[in-house]
Amino acid sequence: MQLGMVGLGRMGGNMTRRLLRGGHEVVVYDQSGEAVGQAVQAGAVGTSSLRGLVAGLHPPRSVWVMVPAGDATEQAVDELAGLLSPDDTVIDGGNTYFKDDVARAEQLSARGLHYVDVGTSGGVWGLERGYCMTIGGPAEIVERLGPLFDTLAPGSGQDACEAPPSTARRGYVHVGPAGAGHFVKMIHNGIEYGMMQAFAEGLEILRESGSDRVDPRHRYDLDLHDIAEVWRNGSVVSSWLLDLLEIALREDRELSAYSGFVQDSGEGRWTVQTAIEEDVPAHVLTASLFTRFQSRQEQSYAMRVLSALRHQFGGHVEQKKTGGGP
Question: What are phi and psi of 194, to 5 degrees?
Answer without folding.
Answer: -65, -40
